[in-house]
């Protein structure tokens, strides 16, 4: 019998693990039935237009026998909104619950699963803030029932960044780029944009890192803005409720959070489990997704619980919760590691174990605060996004060619070079109908020529790209240069400068919350070290 292979990212479930998952699901069903929530089930396959408002476009696309565009659902709120609109069941307060699988396309060979099970509630036609309290109470009660002891509630709001930026006189470009830099925790880009805004408030000087204690301290100073004060008053209500009924649950805020989906219109609540580095639940208010027959919008609040996270928590050794794992820094071997070591040391990170590495590849600091893993540059992001690493340090040339599932926090200003378009002296692109470009960086090159409005043939090379024009394989190249010497030696000239290259400091998204105090301190120190001298902060 031929071996039957699973599709990439899929898995079989079997035996004791499946039984345990079924027990979790049955508990959820029993609790929500007892609480009067109405079950609703939607199909795995939906019309593509149901997900027009879905932020993540990495969905599985299908065609039916009539050629209609379909998708495997990546989200359960939007199908329920479709169900409610079709059945006109939005006139009175309705409490629904669902339990089912969602599907996301994943990065090839990443090891991630494209299928996960979610259980969630939707509270329809409830305008008052009682809906947020009820949804959070339901999720915290599940966390308590399943014995998840270190859940942390993180509060944010889909309106907040726009409301604060609205206090400044900004053109659309700067406003959009500033919001993107804040949400992506990109300190380097944020600093560049901040310098263009006169009288930028000191309390938001580190806005991309304004979460946890940093967010709470900035929060009090922002309450002078009436619309922001209203949001934060609601946060206080949720915090007070949590502290009263779940005193062991920590509550914090994130003033720099990206809205998980564009249909959210207000409060966003997440439940983070630091020891797992993952979210247990998340959701928010979406008051403009549903509408009545007369087109009047219908308020709604929804929250989803990740069943696999509950299962992962139940299957681990709880004694590990008392141990503080080190922050794992994945470093590109060679020049990158050598260049950034002095910076890390000045930022308070003990790098002494790297001074005489011999043939070792893993190093722990004496105080067990950090663990360094030395890998090839192309593997840094893989270690990071697979949860092995918390911090990744690698060149932006490597980052540009890989899928991103982390925060690109800081340009460390080391290993500087640039991407260039180079060719022989007689290069006349306007006379060539379709350019052939040799490069090691097809993703970056494709984006560059797309921005130029040019259709080119890209030839991926692994070796000496300079040979492309010399041998006639290609008309030109896109490659990295520091001094330009190699180009000159091969009789090539620079025709355009595509973009800068430098070493970047990356952080896995979960790690930034899991180790927020230590990492934000290090990031701030590094930002001060690499800032222009006149911008250095005391």
Automatic annotation (TrEMBL):
GO molecular function, one term: ATP phosphoribosyltransferase activity
Enzyme class: transferase
EC number in record: 2.4.2.17
Catalytic activity: 1-(5-phospho-beta-D-ribosyl)-ATP + diphosphate = 5-phospho-alpha-D-ribose 1-diphosphate + ATP
Family that this chain belongs to: Belongs to the ATP phosphoribosyltransferase family. Short subfamily.
Miscellaneous remark of the record: This function is generally fulfilled by the C-terminal part of HisG, which is missing in some bacteria such as this one.
Protein name (record): Multifunctional fusion protein
Record organism: Fructobacillus cardui
């Amino acid at each position: 019998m031929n071996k039957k292979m699973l599709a990439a990212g899929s898995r079989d479930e079997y035996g004791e693990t499946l039984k345990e998952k079924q027990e979790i699901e049955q508990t959820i069903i029993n609790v929500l039935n007892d609480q009067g929530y109405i079950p609703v089930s939607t199909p795995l396959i939906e019309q593509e237009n149901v997900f027009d408002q879905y932020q993540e476009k990495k969905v599985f696309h299908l065609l039916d026998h009539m050629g209609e565009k379909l998708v495997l659902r990546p989200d359960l709120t939007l199908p329920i909104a479709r169900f409610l609109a079709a059945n006109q069941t939005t006139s009175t307060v309705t409490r629904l619950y669902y339990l089912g699988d969602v599907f996301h396309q994943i990065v090839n060979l990443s090891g991630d699963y494209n299928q996960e099970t979610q259980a969630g509630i939707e509270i329809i036609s409830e305008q008052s803030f009682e809906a947020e309290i009820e949804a959070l109470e339901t999720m915290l009660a599940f966390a308590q029932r399943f014995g998840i002891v270190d859940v942390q509630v993180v509060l944010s709001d889909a309106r907040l960044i726009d409301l604060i930026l609205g206090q400044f006189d900004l053109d659309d470009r700067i406003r959009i780029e500033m919001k993107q830099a804040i949400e992506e925790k990109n300190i380097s880009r944020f600093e560049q944009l901040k310098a263009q805004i006169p009288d930028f408030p000191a309390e938001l000087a580190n806005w991309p890192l304004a979460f946890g204690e940093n967010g709470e301290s900035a929060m009090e100073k922002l309450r002078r803005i009436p619309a922001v004060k209203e949001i934060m008053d609601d946060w206080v209500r949720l915090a007070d409720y949590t502290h009263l009924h779940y005193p062991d649950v920590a509550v914090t805020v994130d003033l720099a959070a990206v809205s998980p989906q564009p249909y959210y219109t207000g409060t966003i609540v997440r439940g983070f489990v630091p020891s797992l580095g993952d979210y247990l639940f998340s959701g928010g208010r979406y008051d403009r997704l549903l509408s009545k027959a007369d087109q009047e919008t219908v308020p709604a609040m929804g929250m989803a619980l990740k069943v696999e996270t509950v299962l992962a928590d139940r299957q681990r050794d709880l004694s590990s919760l008392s141990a503080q794992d080190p922050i794992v820094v994945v470093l590109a071997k060679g020049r990158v590691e050598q260049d950034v070591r002095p910076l890390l040391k000045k930022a308070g990170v003990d790098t002494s174990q790297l001074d005489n590495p011999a043939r070792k590849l893993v190093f722990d600091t004496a105080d067990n605060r950090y663990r360094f893993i030395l890998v090839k540059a192309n593997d840094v992001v893989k270690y990071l996004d697979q949860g092995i690493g918390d911090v990744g340090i690698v060149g932006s040339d490597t980052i540009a060619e890989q899928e991103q599932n982390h925060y690109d926090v800081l340009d460390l200003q080391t290993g500087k070079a640039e991407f260039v378009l180079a060719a022989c002296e007689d290069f006349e692109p306007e006379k060539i109908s379709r350019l052939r470009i040799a490069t090691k960086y097809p993703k970056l090159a494709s984006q560059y020529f797309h921005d130029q409005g040019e259709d080119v043939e890209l030839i991926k090379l692994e070796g000496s790209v300079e040979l492309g024009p010399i041998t006639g394989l290609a008309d030109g190249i896109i490659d990295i240069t520091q001094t330009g010497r190699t180009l000159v030696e091969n009789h090539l000239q620079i025709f355009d400068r595509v973009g800068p290259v430098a070493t970047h400091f990356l952080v896995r998204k979960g790690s930034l919350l899991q180790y927020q105090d230590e990492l934000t301190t290090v990031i701030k120190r590094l930002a001060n070290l690499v800032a222009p001298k006149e911008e250095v902060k005391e």
